[in-house]
Amino acid sequence: MLKIYSTYGIGIAIVLIAYFLILKLIGLHHYPVLSVVNALFFGAGIYFALKSYQSKVSEVKYEKGFEAGLFTGGIASIIFTVFMALYMYQIDGVFATSIMESWNMETQMGTAMIVVSVFIMGLVTTLILTFSLMQLFKKSWNAKNRNRNTL
């Protein structure tokens, strides 16, 4: 299972970093609304991680599938947050200030707030998408025989 978490988690993080750098090249990285696309990358990565897990076991238990989704997204969130922290503290110190100004917030902790926000958004996206995607992979409780619970 650790191989699935790490493989897909690192894959999601690489795609997120590449997407951010492409936005930087185009000059659109100052628009936080474009981070909505990150949910698509998280969703695809978690889906493929669950699909990979499903191919290795005969039946996906909800707890184990949920664990696979959470750890996959958690690894991606940690890696992407570390990248964003390095980017904002070492490469482009003005980036965090410009984002905070666009939010009409004046605080001395601008960069730290954005780093924490990136991490929390990654975890929340992971949680919601894992809940949603597990509906596709869990075992159905619906009766095979339609007349089973009738008089």
> What Rg is obtained from the alpha carbons, in whole angstroms?
19 Å
Order of helices and strands: HHHHH
Q: Biggest β-sheet: count, sense, barrel?
A: none
Mean of all residue-level pLDDT scores: 84
The general outline is: elongated
SS-derived structural category = mainly alpha
* Fraction of residues in helix: over 70%
Q: Count the strands?
A: 0
Return residue spans where pLDDT drops below 50 for at least 5 consecutive residues: none
Number of separate helices: 5
Beta content: under 5%
- Report the span from N to C terminus: 45 Å
Protein name: DUF4199 domain-containing protein
Keywords: Membrane, Transmembrane, Transmembrane helix
Transmembrane segments: 7-26, 32-50, 70-89, 109-137
Pfam families: DUF4199
Commentary on this structure:
The chain has helices spanning 2-26, 37-56, 62-91, 93-102, 110-137. It is an all-alpha fold and 151 residues long. The chain has a domain at 2-81 and 121-137. Helix 2 (37-56) packs across helix 5, helix 3 (62-91) packs across helix 4 (93-102) and helix 3 packs antiparallel against helix 5 (110-137). The model has no long low-confidence stretch (mean pLDDT 84).
Please sum up the structure shown.
This protein is mainly alpha-helical and 151 residues long.
SSE diagram, text form:
Blueprint: H1 2-26, H2 37-56, H3 62-91, H4 93-102, H5 110-137
Pfam families: DUF4199 (PF13858)
Organism: Aequorivita viscosa
Transmembrane segments: 7-26, 32-50, 70-89, 109-137
